Amino acid sequence: MARSDELRLMAQVARMYFLDGLKQAEIAGRLLISQASISRMLARAREEGVVRISVAAPRGTFPELEARLCERYGLSEAVVADCAEDREEQILARIGEAAAHYLETTLQPGEVIGISSWSESLLRMVDAIHASKRLAAESVVQILGGMGNPAVQAHATALTSRLAQLTSARALLLTTQGVAGSEAASCALRADPFVQATLAQFPRLTMALVGVGAVEPSKLLADSGNIFTPAELAELAQRGAVGDICLRFFDRDGRTVDSSFDARVIGITVEALRQVARVVAVAGGARKVAALRGVLRAGVVDVMITDRFTAAALAESEMAGEAAHAS
């Protein structure tokens, strides 16, 4: 068969398949060619450039930005939510909705979900989950101590209990402070049998839902009382800390920042987080950019859910940093 005849037949097959919507078996029957030959021609049509497939991104979606974040930070997935304004309240609402949709569409039966306390973005996620979705998990485990100021105590409890209710799972609360008053107090609190029972679930986690904090604590965390003293926060900043997951701090290059008061935190460790199959970070806003960059460079996070302004800032800052390094 001459080359031109081969290309003509290839184009005919491609047109019948992609434009006319015929199945391969139907094309084979009409052209009296084996289905295996039709399949090979369709594959070659793409290789030869006879068929070119393009995907038009719908308005309000950002696939190129998501792909760039995945490539730069080694993420398995990035979800960038559309947001009309670069304001924290609007950002929290949009990323909460995006995180709820992500959980609704990816949750597998029997999952053991870890969830961090004192995260406004995760609160918004839980509020946005549709009760009618009939999600199913085994357990929802609180991975950072949730006891604190009684005025805001309901936030930490609601995160775990409400998510467990929405996923028909049992709730395992970490009924202790996130930050103990001393290392000795931390050891004593960990000895409580109920606390030990929850801590023992950490190796079983299949997914961890976490917020990302800056060194300067959020209002929710500050109001809870689960924070370090101003002197301790200053020491963390001096050591290069830029952000945290569950009060485990990282510097701008993603290295863990150890301190003498790290032992006072009652919650999941960085080492334990690295063992979780899927760590999903939900965070956004201008004040979180440096924190997110450091945390993402640590390689702990698998899935990032953020807003378009934060995602663009992360991508731009990375490109600027690479250019500066190259010069």
Structure description:
This protein has 327 residues and is of the alpha/beta class. The chain has two domains: 3-47, Arc Repressor Mutant, subunit A, CATH 1.10.10; 63-326, Rossmann fold (3-Layer(aba) Sandwich), CATH 3.40.50.1360. The chain is built from 14 helices and ten strands. It has helices spanning 3-19, 24-31, 35-47, 63-73, 88-106, 120-128, 153-166, 183-190, 193-199, 219-224, 230-238, 270-274, 289-297, 308-326; strands spanning 77-81, 112-115, 139-142, 170-172, 207-210, 213-214, 241-245, 248-251, 278-282, 303-307. Strands 1-10-9-5-2-3-4 form a seven-stranded parallel sheet. Helix 6 links the parallel strand 2 and strand 3 (139-142). The chain is elongated and about 80 Å long. Residues 321-327 have low confidence and may be disordered.
Topology:
Blueprint lengths: L2 H17 L4 H8 L3 H13 L15 H11 L3 E5 L6 H19 L5 E4 L4 H9 L10 E4 L10 H14 L3 E3 L10 H8 L2 H7 L7 E4 L2 E2 L4 H6 L5 H9 L2 E5 L2 E4 L18 H5 L3 E5 L6 H9 L5 E5 H19 L1
Parallel strand pairs: 1-10, 2-3, 2-5, 3-4, 5-9, 9-10
Antiparallel strand pairs: 6-7, 7-8
Helix pairs in contact: 1-3, 2-3, 4-14, 5-6, 13-14
The helix/strand order is: HHHHEHEHEHEHHEEHHEEHEHEH
Query: What is the tally of beta strands?
Result: 10
How far the N terminus sits from the C terminus, by CA atoms, comes to 56 Å
- Structural class computed from helices and strand pairing: alpha/beta
The name CATH uses for the topology of the largest domain is: Rossmann fold
Q: Report the principal-axis shape.
A: elongated
- Give the strand content: 5-15%
Q: Outline the biggest β-sheet.
A: 7 strands, parallel
Strand order of the largest sheet: 1-10-9-5-2-3-4
